[in-house]
Amino acid sequence: MALPTADTRVTYPAGELVSQAVVVHVADLGDGRRAVFTDATSIHPVDAGWPDQPADRGVLRVRGLELPIVDAVLAATDGTALHVGADIPVRKGTEGWSFLVAHVVEDGAAVEIGDAVELEADASYRRALSIGHTACHLASLALNQALADRWSKTPRPDALGAPDFDGTAIQSSRIGPGGSVDRYRLNKSLRRAGFDTASLESPDALDGLAASVNATLAEWVADGGAVRVERDGDGLTDRRRWVAELPDGPASIPCGGTHATSAGELGEVRVSFATDDDGGTPVLVMTTRTTPTEVPPSAPRP
To answer: Do 111 and 132 share a structural domain?
Structure first.
């Protein structure tokens, strides 16, 4: 059975929930599960390399059957073997490899190569994750601004020109419905880069940091600037960028996820901070939560 030779064409960056597609490969994953690969998809997969945004929930329809998609994961092939999820041995976009979306179904016996199928993502879950992802980016930028005066050296700038604490210290980021949890390493490397980690040691310091970040987020949400995903093409590995129109100017961050249509759609955004320990290394934990508007604004401020 020949393996696909082209990246999956993805439509979720444009906000699409439904796509018409053709099955190009089917693989047995064991335990009765099968991975269905299509030429195009509206289903956002989780990327094992940086699993910040979870996979969409959704269904696959074929010949009158509706199969729940129990997972959607990144897969890759060099034409000789198929690798799924964490088993992918190369970086996304590696030359000579095709990168695919594997739609995992529990009973895919009825699905065959060449079938015309319809894929549909759950709209409410997609919106909740999209809001959580946009809030995560805004919170990271607001955090960078709040910590800008705690550097003794000049680190790389973020999308708004502030010292990029988020990009320098990030350990992990996990998007959830309406929010996110981001963990930052306060280690020796960060101190050598010129950041004053001692300034984050007390509960009062964390409360003050939260107040500063929340004030910035309130301003940005009230401004209601448009949010969009710009992309170089429709292939899974084509570069995509999150762009937000903010009072300080447009911000652009490389991102493969899905997003809200405006900052105003997020409603209220608030962060809180705590510290944790990771094998003796202090970790700053930022939890972001939103209270979204019930209906997405129809005309965000450009």
So the answer is: no
How far apart (Å, rounded) are the C-alpha atoms in residues 121 and 45? Answer: 11
HEC per residue, 106-162? CCCCCCCCCCEEEEEECHHHHHHHHHHHHHHHHHHHHHHHHCHHHECCCCCECCCCC
Rounded to 5°, the CA angle 192-197-203 comes to 175
pLDDT digits (tens, 9 = 90+) for 230-260: 999 999 999 999 999 999 999 999 999 999 9
Q: How many domains does the chain contain in total?
A: 2
Distance from the Cα of residue 159 to its chain's centroid? 17
The beta-strand segments (E) located in the chain are: 9-10, 18-30, 33-38, 40-41, 58-62, 65-69, 71-77, 82-84, 98-105, 116-121, 170-176, 179-185, 227-231, 240-246, 249-254, 268-278, 281-291
pTM value?
Answer: 0.95
CATH at 37: 2.40.30.130
Domain that holds residue 249: 124-291
Looking at the structure, do residues 272 and 132 belong to the same domain, yes or no?
yes
> Do 254 and 132 share a structural domain?
yes
End-to-end CA distance of the chain: 49
Q: Tell me, yes or no, whether 44 lies in a domain.
A: yes
